[in-house]
Amino acid sequence: MIQALHGMKVIDLSQVLAGPYCTMVLGDMGADIIKVEKFPTGDTTRTMGPYIDNESYMYMMVNRNKRGMCLDLKSKEGRQILIDLIKTADVFVENYRPGVMKKLGIDYETLKEVNPALIYCSISGYGQTGPSSKKGGFDIMAQGMSGLMDMTGEKDGKPVKVGIAIHDIAAAQTAVQSILSAYIYRLKSGKGQYIDVSLVDSGLAWTVWEAAAYFGKGDVAKRNGTAHRASAPYQGYETKDGFILIGAANQKLWETFCIDVMDKPEWIKDPRYITNSHRAQHVDDLEIEIEEILKEENSKHWLGLLEQYGIPSGPIYSYDQTLNDPHIQAREMVLQYEHPIGGLMQTLGFPAKLSETPGQLTKAAPLIGQHNQEVLKELGYSSKDIDQLKEKTVIT
Asked: Quick one: angle between helices 166-189 and 18-28, nearest 10?
């Protein structure tokens, strides 16, 4: 089956999460991803456990569907190999601190002379411009600068980091959509371009409700637990044996919830709860009253009743429960594949289900330098050339 991005060639000089996740998505859609790792240790993620026969599971999760090379880019020969790769490429992705690529002589201005049609994507903590651009930035710093940490957590608690590296993934997805946009433009014009993506900008762009509240009324988003700042009931509630989520966020759902689920029709006329806006203003009172009733029965009882009356609701899972849920399994969000060292492995599936060009898992994450010889031969290097590069320790 031919995939959507069959024929696109991507040189991936990124490491850890944001860049590798971006190129993984492109690879899932059929692009030929050549991951170039630093000599001799490779991607930093290779040092992160858990390990399967000394191979990092973290590394394998975001580097599927790629071929792997390991080059010494500080050597003249290593840089020349990269430039030879760039001559044949459509896209180049890197996520080093601004300035590093310039020092290595592989910045956009240099590489576009080699390949004018090149789409060059840089992912960094703060972007290539601005007062903070030269700072190193990890996901947690981006969460702090974007305001996300300050609005996450319990009302009277400390700022809390989101449970996943959300700015890394936001940057990866921003990079994917930007690369595809630039690729479409290149198909029309023949022109490549430079893409500057930052972790901070990417996560900040997702705060649309919070921006609307601030620009429209001057309201600053604050920690509110699981509650919504503008709708109620729309949060997690405690039951007899755990917690569930309830989202009766419009008037019709609210009235159904009061009458058929809670058996509290008087709440509909209560001045504190008469409109969605009133309920949001008195969300603490509402939480107390709802939980007094919910604590009388277990979560299963309430979820069944809520579903019966069409009230959006759901469990609050631990992560192992998520991966083993029948719906998650039916949606093929957990896949199995064979790894040359790890054997039968599990990984996450493809979130978008395309009818004609679905994502495919065609390659396990590469061993370090696994495809050096294969790729070099495609570039025209002879076996003698490759042996000499090995002797000079330019490649692993």
From this structure: 50
Fold classification of 234-316 is formyl-coa transferase, domain 3 (3.30.1540)
Pick the CATH number of 9-205+328-391 from 3.40.1160.10, 3.40.190.10, 3.40.50.720, 3.40.50.10540: 3.40.50.10540
Strands (DSSP E) found in 44-86: 51-52, 55-56, 66-71
Q: Which of 86, 77, 135 is nearest to 108 (CA)?
A: 86
Fold match, 9-205+328-391 / 234-316 = no
Q: What is the pLDDT of residue 229?
A: 84
* Confidence check: pLDDT of 230 > 90: no
Catalytic residue among 168, 201, 285, 325: 168
Distance CA 301, CA 261 (A): 11
Between vectors from CA 16 to CA 13 and to CA 20, what angle results, nearest 5°? 55
* Burial of 311 from C-beta contacts in 10 A (0-12 / 13-18 / 19+): buried
Does pTM top 0.85 for this prediction?
Answer: yes
Question: Which tokens belong to 357?
Answer: 């060009």
d(CA 394, CA 377): 16
Domain map (residue ranges) of the chain: 9-205+328-391, 234-316
Known catalytic residue at 168: yes
Burial class (CB in 10 A: 0-12, 13-18, 19+), 156: exposed
Token pair belonging to 369:
């330098």
84 burial (CB, 10 Å; 0-12 / 13-18 / 19+) is middle
Is 136's pLDDT higher than 90? no
